[in-house]
Amino acid sequence: MHNICKYKGEQHIQITNDSAIPITEIGTLRSSFNNVFASTDLSTNLIYVANLLIIIVKFTLIMMIVVRKSSVGESDSKGT
Q: Residues 32-80: pLDDT tens digits?
């Protein structure tokens, strides 16, 4: 982002949990995106989402391993 200025308006950025974070800066992102709103609070939310996704992926992989081991155990007990 370039041509960054402090935002002095009263608008906020609506986020998924029905709360709003303040817009702190406005700037340009490439020539096709002018007046882009930014918030320093947004980076904190993105870090939280990234950590949450990592936890979900790890949990999914663990569950896949557990299911695979249990299905292998079932086929061994059936004599296959």
A: 777 777 777 766 656 667 777 888 888 888 888 777 777 776 665 555 5
Sign of CA dihedral 66, 70, 71, 76: positive
Give the separation between CA 4 and CA 13, rounded to whole angstroms. Answer: 17
Length of the chain: 80
What secondary structure, in 3-state letters, does the chain show? CEEEEECCCCCEEECCCCCEEECCEEEEECCCEEEEEECHHHHHHHHHHHHHHHHHHHHHHHHHHHHHHHHHHHHHHCCC
φ and ψ of 74, to 5 deg: -65, -40
Cβ–Cβ < 8 Å for 3, 24? no
- Is the model's pTM score more than 0.85? no
